[in-house]
Amino acid sequence: MSTWIVVVAAGLGSYLFRLSMIILTSRITMPPYLERASGLVAPAAFAALAAAGVAAACSGRGLTGAAAPLAAVAAAVIAVLRTGSPQAAILVGMPALWVATALLPS
Amino acid sequence: MISLRADRSDIAAGARAMVPWLAGIVPFGLVIGVSAAQADVPTLAGWLTGPLIYAGSAQLATIGMLGAGAAPVVVVASALIINIRLIFYSTTMARYWRGTPWWWRLAAAYLIVDPSVAVGLDGYQRLGRGRGHAHYLGGAVVLWVSWLAAIGAGAMVGARWPTWLHLEFVIPLYLVGQTISKLANPAQRQAILAAATVALLALSAPLQLGVAMAIAAGVAAGLAAEVRR
Fold first, then answer.
1. DSSP assignment of B3-71, as one string?
2. Structure confidence by residue, pLDDT tens digits, B37-46
3. Structure pTM?
4. Quick one: A19 and A68 in the same domain?
5. CB distance B97–A22 less than 8 Å?
6. ipTM score here?
7. Are residues A63 and A19 part of one domain?
8. Which of A4, A39, A45 minimises the CB distance to B61?
9. Does the beta-carbon distance from A7 to B214 stay under 8 Å?
């Protein structure tokens, strides 16, 4: 039940954000530091979720079990750095994960 | 105000202007659909983040944190922190929508998100307010339909593919790709390094508060880096 409430509450809050300044714009001025901070939220959130996601994939699998996801992440990082394309992370990382999972002992 | 017949060419131009954005957005929608199917939440609830939250990173965070068992209040707070940029988009669009009917402001505001604002602003600056409304609507509706279709397709694929493919790992890899590509900017680099470090240190934080703490630490580190420059 709480899943549905969370999705609706996050959706309602997001809609109020969208509507807020269209209603209030003549009365409120946003501070500039808040505008700068908003540009940093997405990179910070992506980094936090990426780190937590990789850690979750490695947890409880022991040192050798964690090697395959870590190898896939390393391949993905190298691919993005070499190509400059974020999509290379999935295109290279997933095949690397399958190969590493097949070759490394679990 | 908009007349669908008279403004047909401007609506079509807005839709065409959105097409290049879809190349980057559709894969993101597919990833969110896959995460909705793989996470420990009802797939329909995951898909509903599309029409209700309608902002990719907040949707991904919501699905991921719900799947990890985070406390509801932490999930909602994290999604809203991520979406705080919508307030700035709201400020940006308000100047063009002043004096328009209430129904237009309520509907147009719902469609505010990064690509629709970018395409919409371009239309307002080139075509003026009247024709700009039609241009915004054309781009925003194409984006909305494509986004929900991509999430739906991802959810279907994610639910049916064999487990040995480890499709759930698409999401961390997608995030790694997005993160690495932002390292060139010094403030964003500091935000990324701080957020990733705190997320790893706070893995066992209660209520899955680690991600929210990491976002706060990342933003603080990024702002500090901007002040030092």
1. -TTTTHHHHHHHHHHHHHHHHHHHHHHHHHHHHHHHSSS-HHHHHHHHHHH--HHHHHHHHHHHHTT--
2. 888 889 899 9
3. 0.74
4. no
5. yes
6. 0.83
7. no
8. A45
9. no
